[in-house]
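Q: what sequence does this backbone want?
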């Protein structure tokens, strides 16, 4: 299906996360934090665990300072005091271990729960969006959103959030302890802070750009693979392997380069911090050493100070390492938020029509409808068609005439621009979509099969339909003998693309679905196009039995499929140009006759 450029651009914008205003970013953050709200008590518990673990960690050098200044350097041989200090040291180490363990487990559990919920809601949201959305968005990009963007959010809670709490608090504690130990030395250490802040700000925008580029390129790579896998049969049939491989290589290479650049930037950023940390330690060792010589501070204080300044750089380094994760998280948050804010264009009426499914007759009225996929194009113009209950209508016309669009409008995958479509006199816009889709049974050229058994696929996981009903339905459409030949019969597992079943067998399964769900209207869109003539015969006989008592609309390029219809509608450029029975249309010697002769291999000038 064609995608207009504007739509593709929109897809790319969502994928890249570019052009996000501060307001939107804040809204995205609020939205994500909204998912954390129900876990408030767990976050408070995490906060206290972290607090206790840090306090236990940071008091350890202070104990050593006491031991050095009170005992070791003063010659005080109070061994029992040293033993008590040793005992407290051990206790602190155990406390730190216990609370860190608890905090990590709690955070993992909470983070995973939040992300699982977001993923669930996102999938639910996507499944409610309309076809026009899927026309605009690459399935590959959507796969990235559901899988890796939500995973990145997980990192936000488990890494970034943890680092912000743990390392932020560690920094505050260290600063307090340093000022408590010696305000002058602490003052010198604080000179380093603005330098660190400058480096961090300088890298900020650069890192964000690098990260966005990597994400966009990954998204393109995934989209390419997803779309290629879907069309693998075509790739092989038309020997496009080399061409596709080249295109893949090009995307792969550009992702590889973006990744390298991101890694290089990261390493440079981290190493700068290491150098800065070592220089600061050297500087303070010099200043502090001089102070010890001048007897203005004790040696234990210098020991504790140097230990703290080393520990001081660890949290800064950690936070800076989380910087790139934070960048990716903001991009992912923005993209997910944008996706969540896309509203379904087609919504149920607030006061819907009450429909009794068992009383549906199947009359269809297309009342002077007009439709286009975008504002600047018209695919169907002023089409007026009225179909009686139980009538079988064949719809023919050349490629692009608007036949499938007519069916999509009936199923309300899109809404008409002008006019209305009615079923049994009710405007389909007033019928709840769920009810509407129970009224219509759609059989497409490539019937979609879910991962599951044949029984699951026929009854569409509806447990209220018994396996016996499924077997009866399959027997009714003539699929029973085919299924009996399979190793596990009705319990044969099918995959998404129905591997192991022929196109005809897949089609028969979709007919059995119709029998099971009993929709009053049957729509077949090129359902026999992919079948050889022998299987087509089988499917045609199934159609005969299934269409009995149902209003049936059949789109077919092969005119042999629809010759027996009660009425044939001939479409050209979004309009009905002829209508009537096969014989009547032939007698008209018009467009249908041209199409018919053409399909018979007797080409008439200007037929298509
Ligand atoms: N999802 C879409 N987005 C934009 N344009 C579309 C979309 N689907 C179809 N079109 C365009 O609308 C027109 C009618 O398409 P439609 O699929 O209804 O024709 P058709 O008669 O069923 O053709 P075919 O026999 O090839 O299936 C074509 O020009 C097509 O390119």
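A:
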């Amino acid at each position: 299906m064609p995608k207009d450029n504007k739509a593709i651009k929109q897809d790319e914008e969502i994928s890249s996360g570019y052009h996000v205003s501060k307001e939107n970013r804040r809204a995205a953050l609020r939205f994500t934090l909204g998912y954390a709200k129900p876990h408030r008590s767990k976050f408070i518990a995490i906060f206290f665990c972290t607090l206790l673990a840090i306090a236990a960690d940071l008091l350890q050098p202070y104990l050593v300072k006491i031991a050095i200044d009170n005992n070791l350097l003063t010659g005080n041989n109070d061994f029992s005091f040293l033993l008590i200090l040793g005992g407290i040291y051990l206790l602190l180490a155990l406390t730190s271990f216990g609370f860190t363990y608890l905090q990590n487990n709690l955070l993992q559990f909470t983070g995973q729960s939040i992300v699982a919920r977001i993923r669930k809601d996102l999938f639910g949201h996507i499944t409610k969006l309309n076809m026009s959305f899927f026309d605009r968005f690459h399935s590959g990009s959507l796969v990235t959103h559901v899988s890796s963007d939500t995973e990145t959010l997980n990192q936000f809670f488990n890494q970034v959030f943890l680092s912000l709490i743990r390392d932020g608090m560690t920094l505050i504690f260290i600063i307090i302890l340093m000022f408590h130990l010696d305000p002058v030395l602490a003052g010198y250490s604080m000179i380093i802070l603005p330098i660190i802040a400058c480096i961090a700000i300088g890298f900020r925008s650069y890192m964000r750009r690098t990260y966005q580029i990597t994400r966009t390129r990954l998204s393109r790579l995934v989209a390419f693979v997803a779309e290629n896998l879907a069309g693998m049969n075509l790739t092989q049939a038309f020997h496009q392997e080399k061409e596709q491989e080249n295109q893949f290589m090009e995307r792969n290479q550009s992702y590889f380069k973006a990744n390298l650049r991101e890694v290089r930037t990261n390493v440079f950023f981290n190493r700068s911090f290491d150098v800065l940390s070592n220089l600061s330690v050297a500087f303070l060792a010099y200043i502090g050493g001089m102070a010890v010589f001048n007897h203005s501070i004790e040696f234990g204080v210098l020991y504790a100070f140097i230990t703290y300044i080393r520990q001081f750089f660890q949290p800064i380094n950690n936070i800076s390492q989380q910087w790139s994760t934070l960048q990716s998280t903001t991009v992912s948050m923005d993209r997910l938020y944008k996706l969540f804010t896309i509203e379904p264009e087609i919504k149920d009426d607030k006061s819907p029509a009450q429909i009794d499914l068992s009383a549906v007759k199947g009359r269809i009225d297309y009342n002077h409808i007009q439709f286009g996929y975008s504002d600047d194009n018209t695919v169907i113009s002023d089409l007026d068609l009225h179909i009686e209950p139980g009538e079988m209508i064949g719809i023919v016309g050349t490629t692009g005439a608007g036949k499938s669009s007519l069916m999509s409008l009936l199923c309300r995958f899109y809404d008409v621009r002008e006019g209305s479509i009615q079923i049994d006199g009710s405007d389909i816009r007033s019928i709840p979509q769920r009810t509407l889709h129970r009224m219509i049974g759609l059989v497409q050229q490539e019937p979609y099969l879910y991962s599951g058994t044949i029984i699951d696929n026929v009854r569409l996981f509806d447990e209220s339909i018994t396996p016996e009903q499924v077997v009866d339905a399959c027997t009714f459409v003539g699929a029973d003998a085919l299924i009996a030949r399979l190793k596990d019969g009705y319990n044969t597992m099918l995959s998404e693309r129905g591997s192991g079943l022929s196109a005809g067998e897949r089609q028969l399964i979709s007919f059995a679905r119709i029998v099971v769900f009993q929709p009053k209207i049957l729509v077949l869109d090129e359902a026999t196009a992919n079948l050889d003539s022998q299987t087509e015969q089988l499917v045609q006989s199934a159609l005969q039995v299934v269409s009995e008592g149902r209003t049936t609309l059949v789109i077919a390029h092969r005119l042999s499929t629809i010759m027996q219809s009660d009425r044939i509608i001939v479409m050209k450029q979004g309009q009905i140009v002829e209508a009537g029975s096969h014989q009547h249309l032939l007698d008209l010697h018009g467009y249908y006759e041209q199409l018919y002769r053409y399909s018979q291999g007797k080409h008439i000038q200007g037929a298509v």
